[in-house]
Amino acid sequence: MGTEACLTALGMSATVEQRSTITAADHFRVPAQWLSSLSEDQAASLIAAAADVTLVLDDEGIITDLAFGSDELSHEGYASWLGQPWIETVTSDSRAKVEALLRDADTKRSPRWRHINHPTARGDAVPVQYATLRVGKHGPVVAMGRDLRNVATLQRRLVEAQQSMEREYSRLRSAETRYRLLFQVAAEAVAIVDADSGRLVEVNPAASKILGRSVRELVGQDLSTLFDRGGRKSVAAMLAEVLATGRADDVSAACDNGGPRLKVSASMFRQEKSAYLLVRLARAEVGSNGSRPTAMVSTLLTLVESAPDGFVVTDLAGNILMANSAFLELAQMPSQQQIKGESLSRWLGRPGVDLSVLLDTLREHGLVRLFATSLHGEFGSSVDVEISAVSVSGAEQACVGFTLRNVTPRLAPEASTPLDLPRSVEQLTALVGRVPLKDLVRESTDMIERLCIEAALELTKDNRASAAEMLGLSRQSLYVKLRRYGLGDLSSDSDR
Questions:
Q1: Which of 61, 70, 186, 466 is least crowded, fewest Cβ atoms below 10 Å from its Cβ?
Q2: pLDDT band with cut points at 50, 70 and 90 for residue 391
Q3: How does pLDDT run across 179-194, given as a tens digit for each residue?
Q4: Would you tell me how many other CB atoms lie within 10 Å of the CB of residue 314?
Q5: Structure confidence at residue 74 (pLDDT)
Q6: Which helix (H) or strand (E) holds 475?
Q7: Number of separate helices (H) and strands (E) present in the chain
């Protein structure tokens, strides 16, 4: 193959007469000036390097020579193509394209690239993009191919990414539709407030009704301006606390247009790097006669908070809603915020047992009196307590009230008693859950030993020598146990 023919195979023209018909977009401008000196070997190397696979075909489409510019294709076993018809090396769906490429080689138009698939031993296919050109009038046909596997992989990943995005968009649209529906039909008054400006972004119909204004009027207004002077300060302080700490107590504020007094609560969430507040509005609780809570109710709440006995309010599952200072001291917790939502069982003597017994009794009888157990503090302290409880189901939220009285001082052993050992099986059973099992076993052993010594002394009329012989002990061992349990008068060692 001559140098000129090789240049033609690369889509170039080496004649000056043809330069005027060649555009810069399709070919080199003057290839003859700087490529005409290439040898045949150099031109062949250039063609092989320019394509991943290069085939030289005769007029019958038989592969007479080939070169690979891609190591991956050479490793596929395609070197055995030599001497085979090109059409036999492709998949059935690509045969028509091979015939078209052989026809295109004789046209004077720019080469047209076609996608051909070559089968592999693994059962899949290697995609290659080919263009053909005849060298000279009666010369061979050169087919240059580009391996499309990397492109196909990228295309597949792109399609998968697009499908994944479409599925995600579909889920987001469905979620937004559900959110919009719930937001509109919810009976609770809810509003979305921009955390930076404090302005209302969205308001549902329930909030519009309770505030006495249309949704169009409310959107864009500052939330605090919807309340009277005192309410503005309370609402603004509550929102600032939510932004600073993530939570705050509910506040009560009256509407500025003479509307009802509302209980306002808020929680913060983030969306697209912006902070928003979910504000809930509800009518403030009123007394049984329709008036606002009286001073007597406030006094009662103050008394409960200051009571020496622990007081806890939980939901029906035993999760704490509020507690007074006495309970916080018993539980060794610094604030109510850290115990809200926690189960009362966390601090009771037998976790999971005592609370279940209390709740079952409340469901059956409605109240519990003087339930004996222990309460463990957060830092390891333990006190004996008596619990009384009552359930309330007629309020806005069903709840349970617990009073916990510390009875440790009155159960403390007297100074004259050497040991506080259980005197009966009932007393021993009552210790289950309060002390470890190994201590219970030791207490049981001590109780049995003491009862046996007392029985022996009673049978022998307090004759210690005979009692020791009856028990199989030496007199010295008996004296040690008598001192241990505080039995008998040991001021004299004489035996009777």
A1: 186
A2: confident
A3: 888 888 888 889 999 9
A4: 24
A5: 64
A6: helix 475-485
A7: 17, 15
Using DSSP, state whether 85 is helix, strand or coil. Answer: strand
Cα atoms found within 13 Å of the Cα of residue 81, Cβ hemisphere only: 29
Closest CA relative to residue 116, chosen from 100, 103, 137, 104: 100
Cα distance between residue 179 and residue 296, in whole Å? 43
Beta-sheet pairing, 63-68 with 141-147: unpaired
DSSP code of 89?
A: G
398 CA to centre of own chain? 30
Q: At 189, which amino acid appears?
A: A
Alpha-carbon gap, residue 403 to 330, rounded angstroms: 12
Question: Which amino acid, one-letter code, is at 386?
Answer: E
**Contact (Cβ atoms closer than 8 angstroms) between residue 294 and residue 272:** no
* Residue 263, number of CB atoms within 10 A of its CB: 14
Q: Which three-class secondary structure string do you get for 153-195? A: HHHHHHHHHHHHHHHHHHHHHHHHHHHHHHHHHCCCEEEEEEC
- What is the tens place of the pLDDT at every residue in 98-152? 888 888 888 777 778 898 888 887 888 888 889 888 887 778 888 888 888 888 8
Among 224, 179, 184, which residue's Cα sits nearest to residue 204? 184
Question: Who has greater pLDDT, 243 or 13?
Answer: 243
Q: What would the two tokens of residue 422 be?
A: 């259980």
Query: How many angstroms separate the CA atoms of 392 and 324, rounded?
Result: 18
Residue bearing tokens 């209302």 = 200
Tokens of 482: 């008598």
Looking at residue 85, what is its pLDDT? Answer: 92
Structural domains of the chain, with CATH: 3-153 (3.30.450.20), 186-283 (3.30.450.20), 295-411 (3.30.450.20), 425-485 (1.10.10)
Largest CA distance in the chain: 148
Specify whether the CB–CB gap between 198 and 222 falls below 8 A. Answer: yes
The percentage of residues in the chain with a pLDDT greater than 90, rounded to a whole number, is 6
Residue pointed to by tokens 């030289």 = 56
d(C-alpha 245, C-alpha 232), whole Å: 20
